[in-house]
Amino acid sequence: MSLAQHLPALQVVVPLIAAPLTVLLRQRSVAFAVALVASWIAFAISILLWLQVASGGTISYAIGSWPAPWGIEYRVDRLSSFLLVLVSGIAALVLPFSRSSIEAEVPPQQHYLFYTMFVLCLAGLLGIAITGDAFNIFVFIEVSSLSAYVLIALGRDRRALFAAYQYLIMGSIGATFLVVGIGLLYLMTGTLNLADMGQRLASVQGTRPVLAALAFITVGISLKLALFPLHQWLPNAYAYAPSAVSAFLAATATKVAVYVLLRFYFSVFGESAVFAKLPMQEMMLLLALAGMFAASTIAIFQTDLRRLFAYSSVAQIGYIILGLSFNSVNGLTASIVHLFNHGVTKGAIFMLLGCVALGVGGTSLARVQGLGKRMPLASFGIVIGGLSLMGVPGTAGFISKWYLLLAALEKGQWWLVFMIVLSSLLAAVYVWRFVEAAYLREPRQDAANVTATPWLMSVPTAVMVLAIVYFGLDTSFTLGTATEAAAALLRGTR
Fold this sequence. Notes:
2 strands
């Protein structure tokens, strides 16, 4: 057997093995090297898996050679391979960034613990994307969540502990709802394999346990993806965690949760069960619009850039759910491509904010006054990220907004076109707050000298910013994969 045949298992095993190694070795430099190598190997494997799926179709890998549905199956299709590239790619860039970032934000004796939790979180997120087993999804969600709680709590600010505890409570409630839903599905089908479960549910659709399972899973995953109004954990988690943690979680965690929702809705329950028999379409449309407008409005009144862009994330999740509510190829394409584009954009923004925090000692609007002169490249990068959030042509965010508009026009819903444009104007308002502070105000009299950004932070950040522009101009990878994945989901295949 060639190594290429075992790539699905290695995708999760490599970072999973790296986690205990960093604990055993403990030495900071060695732990960093192990975590970095593991993340780059995971990134290389994800690209190879994407290429394999593109040329040969869906990959099914039976763990321990036990065939599905009796054994655990890893399954890679267009959507999951797309997500694997995003998660591992973000990790591969955030890890070198974190080397210098945590020097200022995490006590030295805890650095090895940071790298351990980071690769463990990475393993959990990759496992969620690749597994074809419902209970395994729950297990990997808990692996990623538990490590994320620790990563957030490592922040120097005492409020990081409160943020981690708040996330733990809400995350535990979400996990409980999810496992109850999976238990009900197992009760009705006798299997945990997602593909097999989807086939067996056809004969029991509409029964009370199945509808209850749909409700439990929807609420559980909505807590994990921070769907408005279940988003209360997110602003504090992003604002008070170490910069590298904020960048990694903002770019990946909620996106993986969206993937789980898509997988259950289309591959397990089926489109008709979700949208035809229940008013899910109307409910998701309402919650998406509420998130887009309420979170954007709250963002406008924030005085700290991390909290501002954290609330922006809640609004952007609204766009992803809005695309899902259309129940069309264009709508789903918009959701999937925005899942990727927003991950890249928000990862870049929070990495830039990490550079700003190191340079001027904080990310409050008062601190960043005159930043355009003091840190011109970082300021320009944040502006590019802001333009992407607004959906300006030439940035990755434009592609997502364009397909959302196409999906709305396809349905003849002109009022939704107006709402999408209006919510983008709200994004322009909160981005303008940064532009005003950075470019139209002079630095405060008590402003200290700017601390130079280490190259290990600046190079990965620059790559992320360039990616925002690249994926806004060349859509062959993102849009091509998203369109194929959307069509496959609507066909109910995996």
